[in-house]
C-alpha cells in the first residue's frame, strides 16, 4: 500500500514537473522567436523596404522570419517535436490562419488584456498536444506599413497575397497568438521515465527497510521469545532445572528476568509444598 500510494503521488508530482520543464523550454523558444521578430522588424525590414515595391521579400516579414528560424531549429533532435505558429484571426498568409481552438485563445487575450499566457492540453488529428500561448499584438509602426490598408501596402505583397486578409490592423491591437506546442506523449514519456527511476529507488529503499526490520525482529524479538516459550513449556511440565537466559537489557531481557523470578518462586513453593506433604505423612 505504501508503494502504491507513493507511486500515485509521485506520478502526479512528476507529471506536473515534466509539464513545467516542457513549458519552460517552450517559453525559451517563444522568447527567442520574439527576438527574431524584433530583429526582422527593426533591422531587416528598413533595409529592404525600398525593394518591396518591385519585389516581395518574405524575409522582411517578422512572422515569416520567426517561422523559418524555428523550422531550422527543429532540425535539432532536441526540438524536432516542438511546433511554432503565429495563429492570426486575419492573416495575410493563410498558413497563419487560426483554427477554431486557436481563434478562441486569441479572443480570450482580446477580452482580457491583462492575460499574458495560456497553456494546457488539446486534441488534434495527430493526437493530444500540450500547448502554451501568448498574445500577439501590433507593437511597431513598421507593421502597419503592410497591414494598415491595401493602399499603403507594398504592391508586391498585394500581388502575392491579394487584399482579402491581413489589413485593418491597429497599433497595439491583439491580432493573434504565438503558440508553441509539443505532443503530449513527450510530457507523459518524460514523466514516466522519471517515475520509473524514482519508484525504483523508493522500492529499493522500502524493500531494504522491510528486510532490515524483519532481520532485527527475528534476532531481537522472535528468537528470544521462542527460547522463553520452550523453557516455559518445560517448566510447566515440572522441569524446574532449566533456566531463562536474560541475554539483553531491553524489554525482552526484563521479561526473561521476570520469568526467572517466577521460576524461582515456583520452585520454592513446590519445595515447601513437598516438605509440608512429607511432614504431614510422618505425623
UniProtKB/TrEMBL annotation:
It comes from the Bacteria. One of its GO terms (biological process) is signal transduction. The keyword Transmembrane helix applies. Pfam families: HAMP, Tll0287-like. The chain crosses the membrane at residues 196-217. PANTHER family: LYSOZYME-LIKE PROTEIN-RELATED, METHYL-ACCEPTING CHEMOTAXIS PROTEIN MCPB. This is DUF3365 domain-containing protein.
Amino acid at each position: 500500500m505504501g508503494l502504491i500510494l507513493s507511486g500515485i503521488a509521485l506520478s502526479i508530482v512528476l507529471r506536473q514537473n515534466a509539464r513545467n520543464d516542457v513549458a519552460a523550454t517552450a517559453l525559451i523558444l517563444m522568447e527567442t522567436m520574439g527576438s527574431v521578430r524584433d530583429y526582422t522588424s527593426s533591422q531587416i525590414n528598413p533595409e529592404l523596404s525600398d525593394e518591396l515595391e518591385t519585389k516581395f521579400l518574405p524575409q522582411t516579414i517578422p512572422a515569416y522570419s520567426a517561422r523559418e528560424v524555428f523550422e531550422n531549429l527543429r532540425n535539432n533532435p532536441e526540438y524536432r517535436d516542438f511546433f511554432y505558429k503565429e495563429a492570426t484571426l486575419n492573416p495575410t498568409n493563410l498558413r497563419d490562419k487560426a483554427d477554431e481552438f486557436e481563434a478562441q485563445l486569441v479572443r480570450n487575450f482580446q477580452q482580457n488584456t491583462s492575460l499574458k499566457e495560456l497553456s494546457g492540453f488539446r486534441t488534434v488529428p495527430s493526437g493530444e498536444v500540450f500547448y502554451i500561448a501568448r498574445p500577439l499584438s501590433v507593437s511597431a509602426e513598421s507593421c502597419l506599413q503592410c497591414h494598415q490598408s491595401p493602399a499603403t501596402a507594398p504592391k508586391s505583397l498585394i500581388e502575392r497575397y491579394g487584399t482579402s486578409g491581413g489589413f485593418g490592423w491597429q497599433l497595439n491591437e491583439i491580432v493573434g497568438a504565438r503558440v508553441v506546442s509539443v505532443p503530449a506523449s513527450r510530457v507523459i514519456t518524460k514523466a514516466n521515465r522519471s517515475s520509473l527511476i524514482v519508484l525504483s529507488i523508493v522500492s529499493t529503499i522500502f524493500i531494504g527497510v522491510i528486510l532490515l526490520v524483519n532481520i532485527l525482529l527475528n534476532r531481537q524479538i522472535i528468537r528470544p521469545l521462542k527460547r522463553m516459550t520452550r523453557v516455559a513449556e518445560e517448566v510447566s511440565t515440572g522441569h524446574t532445572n532449566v533456566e531463562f537466559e536474560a541475554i539483553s537489557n531491553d524489554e525482552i531481557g526484563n521479561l526473561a528476568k521476570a520469568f526467572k523470578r517466577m521460576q524461582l518462586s515456583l520452585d520454592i513453593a513446590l519445595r515447601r509444598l513437598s516438605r509440608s506433604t512429607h511432614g504431614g505423612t510422618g505425623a
